[in-house]
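User: Teach me something about this protein's shape.
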Amino acid sequence: GVLEGDLYLVGRGDPLLLGRHAEQPVSPFDHLAESLAAAGVKEIGGRLIGWEGQFSGERRAADWAWSDLMWYYGADVSALTFHNAAAHLRITPGAHVGDAVLVVGQPETGYYRIVPTATTSPPETPPALDIERPLGTNVIHVRGTYPAAASPEDAFVSLDDPARYATTVLAEPLEGRGIRVAGGVATSSTPLPADLRTLASVTSPPLREIVRQINQPSHNLRAEILLRLLGLKACGEGSARAGLDAALDFLTRQGVPTEGLDLRDGCGLAPTNLVTARALASLLAAMRRHVSAQ
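Assistant: First, the predicted structure itself:
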């Protein structure tokens, strides 16, 4: 039947909320949409609202370079983040010199648009691709040339407004299952209504897996999300400032000298981050002695 009022997609800071891929043929949002369809929901009478109020403050460090912001490693931070807040482009040369280069984006969604004008160049020429997403838009331009017979090139481009991206990508499988969203898509950071009830949910991987998925690929966005979760847990505020305060407090309690440290973000992208050799050596020694050391 009709679900009266608004339906909230509540983000709690899961950094591994990903779309379909080889190891995950069904996305978490497919699961949510299927759960609602199985419950007999045919229409959402109000809006589908992506809630990102778990985090507060700036979405990025003040001194990140503008040139980094269009790439996945400079993506905006939100408590509701889907698919690393980015689009995965696979770029393949055409069959013949002069043919259009083929560009396929994942996940498949109407939230972003690819404008490919690149062409296939002779095999002996070097790649000369120019990928641009003007800030504030979700239009991705792929210009230049790419040599014939070259292996596919992968590019990961950040998208504007991660919470709206996630909410849009949920609205699409809902509509694909015949569930109409009458009020369209919106986002919010204001306190949630007190009378909400959970209709479906997705459980994040355990923290040990999240940390592994941050450290092994050195993933900036996931580190920034974890920093804000640390602030929320330790200080009651899901902001970067609270997370950095909690990290400095931990260092002090472990006997690590914090003089000379200047921490600006959780991932190290800011060029103004400063760490002393003495602090790093002291931290390694402290963690070796820590009760959780392995």
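Now, about its shape. Helices lie at 28-38, 162-176, 207-215, 220-235, 240-253, 277-289. Residues 37 and 177 are 7 Å apart (CA to CA). If you'd like, I can walk through any region in more detail.
User: That's plenty for now, thanks!
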